[in-house]
Specification:
The protein is an alpha+beta fold. 26% of the residues are buried. It contains five helices and 19 strands. The radius of gyration is 24 Å and the shape is globular. The protein is 17% helix and 38% strand. The protein folds into two domains: 23-157, no CATH class; 169-305, no CATH class. The strands form four sheets. Strands 5, 6, 7, 8 and 9 form a five-stranded antiparallel sheet that branches.
């Protein structure tokens, strides 16, 4: 009988490890870390056990669904409205959205059951939109599509009705420094005068949003330079400084913009663009795989990898 009990104890302990051991580095962290517990004049406490237990559950499910590294968690509040937060998959850092939200309402402010709220977000974008009504202290926007950008620490609301005085696309890009091709990572690493701060892209983002209802994404980039056009396609090269085990390096992305869409592809830390716009990139700093790209109306396509 003692042997049977010992065998059962072993089974239970093994089963517990397989079920509860969190993925990645989460095993060393007991819970998510909520960076904002509450917002001014709002009742929600995002650090209470009701919220953190839901965040923990979403985090341990280990399914990225937003901005490449984050998980969206949506919860129902006591008011009947919903709140949401983004959770960093690797660290558990959690950032709530300031606004609660619900669906469309009638003239009396009562919910219209047939028109619930809808959230739109993507795994490769830091933009999140809520179709319905959003609520915060002295900031209520009802019966519309309201969009936010997550900057890595908090959500920033995008203006819904932006009035831009820029007359055309050329003027929108007039503040961005340009670079001719051929070009490579090695050349650009020694040149600082060809780069413009990402802050100068705000006018461009607003212009596309206002004139063409097109959102242009610049994920995590700190600097950009304008490359020659490919037909009617505008091409930008962006970079940011990243910390790695071997030191700080620049990581690059290529952004394409046409009348219908804005897309980007990561070139990582090493790339080459020849005079015919043949693009080669390395899949990582280890330099094991060379990837050939081509620019088309659908964005940047991978031709081959070897």
């Amino acid at each position: 009988m003692k042997h049977i009990k010992a065998f059962l104890l072993i089974l239970l302990s093994v089963g517990g490890c397989s079920v509860y051991s969190p993925p990645y580095s989460q095993a060393a962290v007991s819970s998510v870390k909520v960076h904002t517990c509450s917002f001014d004049f709002e009742d929600e406490n995002f650090c209470d056990s009701a919220h953190t237990s839901l965040y923990d559950k979403a985090w341990l499910n280990n399914r990225v669904n937003f901005d490449e590294n984050y998980i969206i968690s949506s919860n129902i509040e006591k008011s009947g409205l919903r709140s949401l937060a983004v959770i960093n998959l690797k660290t558990g850092d959690t950032y709530p959205l300031e606004y609660t939200y619900g669906g469309y309402v009638d003239e009396s402010g009562r919910a219209i059951p047939s028109k619930p709220s809808k959230i739109d977000f993507q795994i490769n974008s830091n933009k999140l939109c809520i179709d319905g009504s959003v609520y915060a202290y002295q900031n209520t926007f009802q019966n519309q599509n309201t969009c936010f950008i997550f900057n890595g620490k908090e959500f920033e609301k995008l203006e819904t009705n932006v009035s831009i005085s820029l007359p055309d696309e050329t003027s929108a890009f007039s503040k961005i420094k340009s670079t001719a091709i051929p070009i490579s990572w090695d050349t650009l690493s020694r040149i600082s005068s060809n780069w413009s701060s990402i802050d100068k892209m705000k006018d461009i983002s607003n212009w596309y949003n206002s004139q063409r209802k097109l959102y242009v994404s610049f994920p995590r980039l700190t600097e950009v330079t304008l490359l020659p056009k490919v037909g009617n396609i505008t091409v930008l090269l962006g970079r940011y400084n990243a910390e790695t085990d071997s030191g700080n390096i620049y990581l690059y992305s290529l952004i394409t913009i046409n009348n219908n869409a804005s897309k980007y592809v990561k070139l990582n830390n090493k790339f080459w663009i020849d005079k015919n716009y043949l693009i080669k990139g390395i899949d990582s700093d280890e330099g094991k795989t060379v990837i050939n790209y081509k620019i088309s109306n659908d964005g940047v396509k991978i031709l081959s990898a070897k």
